Amino acid sequence: MKRPVIGITPNYAVMDYMGVSQGYPYTPRGYAGSILRAGGIPLTFPFAPDEDILRQLIGLCDGFLFTGGQDVDPAIYGEMPWDKIGATAPLRDIQEKMLLPLIMETGKPVIGHCRGMQMINCVLGGSLYQDLPTQHPSFPNLLNHSQSEKAVFPTHRVDIREGTLLASCYGLTAEVNSFHHQAVRTVAPGLSVTATAPDGMIEGLEMKDYPYLQLVQWHPEEMTPQHEGANRWFAAFIDACR
Questions:
Q1: What is the C-alpha to C-alpha distance for residues 136 and 152, in angstroms, rounded to an integer?
Q2: Is 149 an annotated catalytic residue?
Q3: What would the pLDDT profile of 74-98 be if each residue is shown by its tens digit?
Q4: Is 122 assigned a catalytic role?
Q5: Which segments in the chain show pLDDT lower than 50?
Q6: Is residue 237 helix, strand or coil?
Q7: Which pLDDT value is given to residue 217?
Q8: Residue 18: its pLDDT value, please?
Q9: What is this structure's pTM?
Q10: Which of 136, 145, 180, 219 is catalytic?
């Protein structure tokens, strides 16, 4: 059986090479490993925010994964930066803002994890809490959304809406990991909530009027193969891409 090719949005890092600081794309190994395990072929995109190049890359792929990473630039959702915002990656923001509408023209499957969910929500017209400890009205009574434990360990529960694809993967409750200080504040038009944490934080989104667009706030790629829900999440995505 032919393996579907999955385009992965790269993370951004800066390193010194021959005395010069340079930015480069990379993909944390959990993404590629989970896609391979589920039967796909991971393809990390370069940074090339050019419409013709992105269209050609999209044509090579059967599905797309928007990954975690830096904070989303609040300019994307029409706000000035809060003083507690973390590191951003302007080149990454520019490319992903261009990329999503081009992908959606094709109707090909899309998933997003953590920043990936936040970025897609913002590109589609939603907004974020830029920093939960200083902006969310319920702090300090929130759950721990930025755990210190290793990513393979869960830190809090999420409640999942019945009848969603997410529920078919995880059931109606799941224990998940959590590594974020930003979170969805306003849900974009066209998206609907599929999961929340007990403190009310939005943990999952989907677009019912698109063939396959599923988003989660946690990192399933770090919980495979130990967690069956995470395995089913990737298996469902790869099946949709075939």
A1: 27
A2: no
A3: 999 999 999 899 989 999 999 999 9
A4: no
A5: none
A6: helix
A7: 98
A8: 65
A9: 0.95
A10: 219
219 belongs to the catalytic site: yes
pLDDT of the residue at 17? 67
Q: Is 212 left (phi over 0), alpha (psi -120 to 50) or beta?
A: beta
Angular region, 63: left φ>0, alpha ψ -120 to 50, beta rest: beta
Bridging pattern class, strands 5-8 and 63-66: parallel
Catalytic residue among 203, 206, 221, 222: 221
**From 61, 96, 114, 206, the catalytic residue:** 114
pLDDT score for 23: 73
Strands (E), the chain: 5-8, 11-17, 20-26, 41-44, 63-66, 110-113, 127-129, 156-160, 173-176, 183-186, 191-196, 202-207, 213-216
Domains of the chain from N-terminus onward: 5-12+23-241 (3.40.50.880)
Predicted local distance difference test score (pLDDT) of residue 1: 80
